[in-house]
Amino acid sequence: MDVFAPAAPVPPQQSAITRRLAFAVGTLFIVGVIAAVGTLLGIAARLDREDIDETLFYTARALENRIAASKSYITSYADWTTAYEHLSTQVDTDWAYTQQNVGKTLFTSDGYDGVFVLDRQRTKYAVLQGQLEDVDISRLLKVPAASLVDQVQSQPDLTVPISTYSLFDGWPALVTAAVILPNDERPLGDPKQTSVLVFVDKLTPTKLRAIGVAYGLQNLNLTPDELLAKERPRVPLDNTGYSLTADLERPGQHLLWSLLPTLGAVLAVLMLLTAYFLRHALRSSRYVDQSFSTLQASNQALEAANHALEASEERFRAVAEAASDWIWEVDNQLRLTYLSARFSEVTGYPQTQWLGQGIGQLVACATTPLELWLKKLSEDSNASDLRCTYRDHAGQQRHCRLSARPIIDKHAVGGYRGTASDITDEVAAHAQIQHLSMHDALTGLPNRNQLARYLDDALLLKEHAPPLSLLVIDLDNFKPINDSLGHPAGDAVLQEVASRLRECTREHDIVARLGGDEFVVVLNGMDSRHEVDRFCTRLVESLHQPLAFEHHPLHVGASIGIALSRRQGFVPSELIRCADIALYQAKSEGKNTWCYFEAHMSDQIQTRRQMESDLRGALKNDEFVLHYQPRYKVDGKHIVSVEALVRWQHPTKGLLGPDLFIGLAEQTDLIVPLGRWVLREACETALTWPSDILLSVNLSPAQFALSDVVEDVREALVQTRFPASRLELEITENVMLVDTDGALATMNALKELGVRLNMDDFGTGYSSLGYLRAYPFDGIKIDKRFIASISHGANDRAVVQAIIGLGKAMGLTVTAEGVETEEQLDILGKDQCNEVQGYFMSRPIDKSAFAQLLKDSRGGPLEHTINASTHAQRL
Ligand code: C2E
Ligand code: MG
Ligand code: MG
């Protein structure tokens, strides 16, 4: 049977119908109750609304009738000839009040609180609450008396009275006014001249109650509008701020109050009955559901158990046959009784070869004997797995991880079963990672981590440990190779250097690569200077041998800094630091050399580092300036060329000469950007000079090594548009010493740009004039040391004469540098030197001073020039 088949369909449907029915009955009941209550509320509201309408209607009617009665009553007095005769002009008080024609009785029996006779100008007669008073109606009445008189006198029919509401003595009153007229046929004059009779009926609570009773109104009352609730039904009395109200009967609410208790009781009973019914219905349906689910669940459980059993067997088979692990079983003698099919695939042995054999013969663990581990398993089932080795059919050593469980047979351990996972690849990968973390990937040499570990071990015993010499080696000339020939060349160099370093060292020494072109050699058990010097000589020689890359010979050198454990201490990082400082010193002393750490180097290094960082800042902040020193024809008058000489306008130390920073710039890479700046700046400035004046710029040998000078010069010429034919480059012979072939190629390329080349400081190096022949120089500058001594002895003069003679014979322009006296100038003139340069003619001066000098020298004799130069800034 399919365990996932749906259950028999009827019971769930039945229970669903019951539930839906119960829900419908419940809903119907609620809807019914809401409808009934709604209807009842509607009826009650309608009854209340009718009651309000009725009350308002009767209130209004009561007022209208009061007005009508008052109008007709006043007409009976005003439209009366006798009254006209006694009241219209001069009021006859005796007739009116004493004889009670229009007097007390109007209050006592008719309820008028005020009776007045007035005309446009004044109140002529006033009776207040039955008493004759001398009072002006305007003092009591809020409505202006004049407008009242106007209104009644302008009626088309003067016999018709008017009525209005007004506050009288602070209380709402009905004011009725009529023109006093004769009721005979006599002619009437101007209506405006007639007198007006006014009756004031104050609507007091007593009067209102009486009116209300007559109209079936309860508690008819006057209330100020502001005190009445907004929704309160009312009849407003215009002009007074008061409204008439009466108590409402509210028949709707009465109805509700009388019906609600009964209705509530009935609803509650009905609700209880419905709830009982629904609960009963739902419970029966749930019971049906439950009994069905129980039946279904027991079927499903049975099915699931069968299924799980099948799956488990299936899984076991799959795991046993397809998993990378193999499964084994041993009896209590630890002889193999079962091996899964996977065993022969992994190990290459047929299972039958091993069945019956002891498992210990197949696998072994170097740290824990197998028997012991298995025995421990029967005591502690949580024991961890065991890493073992074995030899496969081909004799290869492999690694596996064993896990096992005891087989309990009748409460005793009858053997063990478990799995063996082959972890040979995992172990190899781990070893590889381990190796990589400790070795440099390119050269295979130990890296910084491994070196640190080695030093920690070697220096653990401090002074009791064998002495160590730690050498930090930095390759010279590596960067240009890497930059110009690319990384493959750089990598090849590093690999070759690594192998040469290994060749030079003994087995218990260590050679490590720290990164870049920096290596460390630790000579274990050796620290005599003599031995270390010998080692360094060998090393430098070995590294000096050309390296072959794609059939190119590459030249690198090495500078070495040395620290000795017995002198610089047993802290690895400190040793490396000291050797580093010594290396810095070695580099500044010249390449291909070594240097032992000395305490004073730290300070020097510190100062140099500071200077180096200042120098970097200076480039960024544009702190360099160029001074210019002219070169003359040997007559000392005509300027042929101008040499640009760099200075550093240091923010605190003042103007610094090149001897203080060019060396440092050369040892760092800073000479490259500095050299480019000088070229550009000089060319730009020289553009402002007459076109027959050449410009000389010094190039450092380091620029040749660290940068593509040809490109630098080309770029400066292109960017400034300075003619190449006006540019002269001064190069010292050291250029040829570093890389003879490379220097020649570079110089030829420079010549191809169209510039002139001058050999500077001739005579200070090793070069001979014959040697010069191979290079494309246009001129030489004899170093100032020779010139300084020409006037002292015939021997020195002879040397200079020889140089001039041979130079000229080779077609070179010969310049004498450092001419400081007239005598020197004369001698050079006699010896037919071509050109001269020196303080005698002009010191190096700044841009503007040189411009002035030029102006003067072009316009006048040499004295001007000398004067100008003495004013110029001196170093
Ligand atoms: P240099 O190229 O041989 O320049 C001539 C040096 O001799 C200048 O020194 C100059 O001031 C000095 N000098 C000129 N006439 C006389 C004299 O009659 N008597 C004496 N005693 N000295 C005189 P400065 O300016 O100190 O330059 C020194 C060196 O610095 C230069 O020697 C040059 O090798 C280097 N240098 C100067 N500017 C640059 C530059 O822009 N780039 C490079 N790479 N090197 C430069
Ligand atoms: Mg020079
Ligand atoms: Mg020079």
TrEMBL record:
Pfam families: CHASE4 (PF05228), EAL (PF00563), GGDEF (PF00990), PAS_4 (PF08448). The keyword Nucleus does not apply. Residues 466-599 form the GGDEF domain. The chain crosses the membrane at residues 21-45, 255-278. Residues 312-357 form the PAS domain. CDD domains: EAL, GGDEF, PAS. Residues 608-858 form the EAL domain. PROSITE patterns: EAL, GGDEF, PAS. Keywords: Kinase, Membrane, Transferase, Transmembrane, Transmembrane helix. NCBIfam families: GGDEF, sensory_box. This is EAL domain-containing protein. It comes from Pseudomonas serboccidentalis.
